[in-house]
Amino acid sequence: ADLLHNPDFENSAVASFFSEECKKSNALVVEFIDLLVQVVLKAFRLAASFYINRNNLMQPEKNKSETEMSLSATLCDGLSVLSSSLNLAASQFGQRSFQNFWVAVAKGLDSVLFDGLIRDKYHTAAAVRQLVFDLNAILTLFRSHTTRPDAAMPMMSTALELLQSPIELIREFMDSKSGL
């Protein structure tokens, strides 16, 4: 599939002969990656179902600092599935295919977590701190592949920033948007 992006191949006499086959092969790889992403997301959703569906976030004590917090126990199985899947894909895919894979997994996780944990939910300040801690654990899995993994999960990152913001800043933001 990488032959299509090679300028020497494009200008060769055999390019037109193989171009259709390369395009079909490339489409097959894209379809395979999409299916694999769906499998990984489903496995994560099943492994972390208690964490996502029950929204049973461990409530840290109010006087605990960020360094004393621990990962939600109900998220550990999901992280294990995610880590195993990423490691296996990294060892089997080429660089471009793996990048497409992990970005699609991160975007899918962003949607799964946002829908399950943020949308239409109320969170205490302690629960928000726990969510931030848990999201950072998830983002750590992607840090070896990019310097800004939070950019691949914009809904969760933005939602948690807003949830951590003082209410006055949010009101100012909403007032400025309503005046447009």
Main attributes of the structure:
180 residues; mainly alpha; 69% helix
Write a brief structural summary.
This protein is an all-alpha fold and 180 residues long. The protein is 69% helix and 0% strand. Helix 5 crosses helix 7 (154-164) and helix 6 (125-142) packs antiparallel against helix 7 (154-164).
Report on the architecture of this protein.
By secondary structure, this protein is mainly alpha-helical. The protein is 69% helix and 0% strand. It is built from eight helices and no strands. It has helices at residues 7-10, 15-47, 49-53, 76-92, 95-118, 125-142, 154-164, 167-178. The chain is globular and about 65 Å long. The model has no long low-confidence stretch (mean pLDDT 82).
Mean pLDDT across residues: 82
| Silhouette | globular
Largest sheet: none
Distance between the termini: 48 Å
Order of helices and strands: HHHHHHHH
What's the SSE blueprint?
Blueprint: H1 7-10, H2 15-47, H3 49-53, H4 76-92, H5 95-118, H6 125-142, H7 154-164, H8 167-178
Helix pairs in contact: 2-4, 2-5, 4-5, 5-7, 6-7
